[in-house]
Amino acid sequence: MLFESSRVRLRKMTEEDTELYHRWRNDIEVMQSTNPSLDVYSIEATKEFVDTVILNSPHSKSYIIMDKDNEIPIGIVSLINMDYKNRNAECIIDIGEKEYWGQGYGSEGLKLLIDFAFYEMNLHRVSLKVFSFNDRAIRLYNRIGFQEEGKSRQSLFRNGDWHDIHMGLLQKEYFETQIKTT
Ligand SMILES: CC(C)(COP(=O)(O)OP(=O)(O)OC[C@H]1O[C@@H](n2cnc3c(N)ncnc32)[C@H](O)[C@@H]1OP(=O)(O)O)[C@@H](O)C(=O)NCCC(=O)NCCS
What we know:
This protein is of the alpha+beta class. The protein has a single domain (8-181), classed as Aminopeptidase (3-Layer(aba) Sandwich), CATH 3.40.630. 34% of the residues lie in helices and 30% in strands. It has six helices and nine strands, in the order βαααβββαβαββββα. The protein has helices spanning 18-25, 28-34, 43-55, 105-120, 135-144, 171-177, and strands spanning 8-12, 61-67, 72-83, 88-95, 125-130, 147-150, 156-158, 161-163, 165-170. The strands form two sheets. The protein has a seven-stranded mixed beta sheet, with helices on both faces. Helix 4 (105-120) packs across helix 5 (135-144). Bound molecules: coenzyme A. The site of coenzyme A (COA) has 20 residues, from helix 2, strand 4, helix 4 and helix 5. Coenzyme A binds at residues 30, 33-34, 75, 93-95, 101-107, 130, 134, 136-137, 139-140.
């Protein structure tokens, strides 16, 4: 079902989610695997980012991942840098509630977003950026069908070493592997 699978539901992100998103965004453990600059944000900076980039940009769509059983917001998935001419976008996923990590919620949430991107938005290609040490995320992306397309070599300096990877998935490939969430 669109925006809903067995355990999660995607709902549109709103301004009321700003403080929750700020907590996730400022969590150093989450930042380690998502944030190239690894700096903490002020609430003002988050509010501005949410206002301009997340909520009011024609080039992005963000959804809160809800745990359906408990009606708890657990993370966020987004399509960003949407390019309507070439039908390309980039995707992002963060499960901000860390006790939900490693139980398949991320896979469910991302599959819903990718189903929407390919079956409804009719995008041609979705890409993403993942740090090369983020094994759990890379396994997830591989399961969904993303392929490594190339590396931005040594573009991230983290914990004394250099990392980065880019991945991409074509609509045709996704339809062929058929991991559609019903
Ligand atoms: C990366 C991230 C999105 C992955 O989401 P997740 O829910 O933790 O991970 P998955 O959905 O892949 O599930 C993890 C494990 O649960 C298992 N699993 C799958 N379905 C399951 C289910 N129904 N019940 C229990 N376990 C399940 C999977 O086998 C998987 O194991 P594996 O990773 O050893 O293959 C999440 O950990 C996260 O947000 N991390 C911090 C931010 C981040 O790194 N974001 C990505 C930046 S590129």
